[in-house]
């Protein structure tokens, strides 16, 4: 098991918690077509927070549960900056961006 797994698991829980606190958690599953997007971050079919909830978090949990190799890089926080720059969230997204940046740093950290 990769030594980063416990810290990454905790980070995923914090990201989920923040999505819920901000009211960005959705109870309705997107269509299977929307989830099947091949575009990075499913930009053509999902909102960024939907991608986090329905694609990113489940995939990362699967990696941890099955002891699969972690990705070599992550640019999630950069994507979050671009997405939230175009929204009037009035700083509400700041904590989510911090959590995503911490996730990115965990991914690139030396094992």
UniProtKB/TrEMBL annotation:
Pfam family name, one: DUF446
Residue spans crossing the bilayer: none
Domain YqcC-like stretches: 8-106
Protein origin, superkingdom: Bacteria
Protein name as catalogued: YqcC family protein
């Amino acid at each position: 098991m990769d030594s980063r797994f416990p810290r990454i698991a905790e980070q995923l829980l914090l990201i989920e918690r923040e999505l819920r606190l901000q009211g960005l958690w959705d109870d309705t599953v997107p269509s299977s077509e929307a989830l099947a997007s091949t575009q990075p971050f499913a930009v053509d079919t999902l909102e960024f927070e939907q991608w986090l909830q329905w694609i990113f978090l489940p995939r990362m949990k699967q990696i941890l549960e099955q002891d699969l190799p972690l990705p070599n890089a992550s640019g999630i926080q950069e994507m979050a900056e671009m997405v939230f720059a175009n929204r009037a969230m009035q700083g509400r997204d700041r904590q989510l961006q911090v959590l995503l940046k911490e996730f990115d740093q965990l991914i690139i950290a030396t094992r």
